[in-house]
Amino acid sequence: MNAANSTGSLVCVGLGMTLGSHLGPLARSHIEQSDVVFAGLSDGIVELWLQKMHPDVRSLQPYYHEGTSRMQTYRQMVEAILTEVRAGKKVCGVFYGHPGVFAWAPHKSIEVARSEGYPAHMEPGISAEDCLYADLGIDPGRVGCQHYEASQLLFYQRRIDPTAYLVLWQVGLVGDQSLARFSTGAAYRQLLVEVLARDYPLEHEVIIYRTATLPIQQARIERVALGALPQADIGMADTVVLPPARTMLVDHEMRTRLDVLDRAMSDAVRDVG
Amino acid sequence: MFDVIDFLESMGQDAQLRYASSEHVVATLAAQPIDSKLRDAILAKDALGLGALLGQDSFCCYINPAKEDEAGGDSSEKDKAKKKPAQRPKK
Ligand SMILES: C[S@@+](CC[C@H](N)C(=O)[O-])C[C@H]1O[C@@H](n2cnc3c(N)ncnc32)[C@H](O)[C@@H]1O
Fold first, then answer.
1. pTM, entire model
2. Among A28, A63, A64, A70, which one carries the catalytic annotation?
3. Do A42 and B57 touch (CB under 8 A)?
4. For chain B, how are helix, strand and coil distributed in percent, rounded to 5?
5. Segments forming the whole domain that contains residue A92
6. Least CB-CB distance to B61: which of A155, A179, A236?
7. What are the tens digits of pLDDT across the range B10-23?
8. What value of ipTM does the predicted structure carry?
9. A16: helix, coil or strand?
């Protein structure tokens, strides 16, 4: 079917992290008004909740297979979603948290749908990042906050600023080059610690964080020394936070230049007046 | 009919219930037509047990690749093993 005269469309929405607590009214309305719903969630019980909102919810879970590259899995998810869009359906992709935070498949689905001429957009949701700021009392604006996919610190040469917060995602499978495993392990986290030890002392406190996906749960907030991270129990849904190790350094040169600029500006104002 | 998922939803979106004491949850649950095993799992805050009772396995929550466009990311280990030498993964 030609996209120009097709009724197909796509919206990707976030369900938030906790069942019942975070779903916004607009996202809920998209779910209820769509023809088909695809579910990329992190908890089976949350999927049962979503099924109550729509009669045709298709889980993306069956696409995961340990031993198969997740890149291939994600492409299959995009294809499944696009197949329905191309068939003229109003499709809603529902993802846990925020559908655009550390989430390749929703972004890609929207990009492909748009490239084929279908209307497609994203509605934000409450991500693990949002919960983390609340539960750990962190304001990302105070000294800054960096977010990295943990493996990228091993695969690539990145520059970390230890005067800001550092949030590491997907630590449970850090260093998995095959993209085909669901978890790696202590030896892989040891390499991550080696990289981090370039900027942080091994005694530096790190926080292992997991927010509740069910309202009967409490957040996991566990503090361990950086050097003990390899031995810690870290699962798929855990996020690791490193508070700053040093204070921000004053940039004396730039402050002096700002002083000069301030004086020049006030001189100019005086001259005009 | 009101069921355990409805109960969890109301717990998630009610300011009192979300952080309620066990006694309050016990009292609220008692008024609902919910199976006693499910009720026990809720009171024990046993998410895994509750999932098992509802026929749910643990879910994979990854949806983001650490690298996209390099060799190794495109095909599975199994596929690679099956491939002929001439079909090496693209660089
Ligand atoms: C592919 S990302 C998806 C993030 C999601 N889109 C969001 O908005 O939070 C998966 C990673 O998110 C983080 N994550 C997922 N569930 C979490 C939870 N319940 N608490 C804390 N972090 C979580 C972990 O770092 C996990 O490895």
1. 0.91
2. A70
3. no
4. 50, 0, 50
5. 3-126
6. A236
7. 999 999 999 988 88
8. 0.91
9. strand
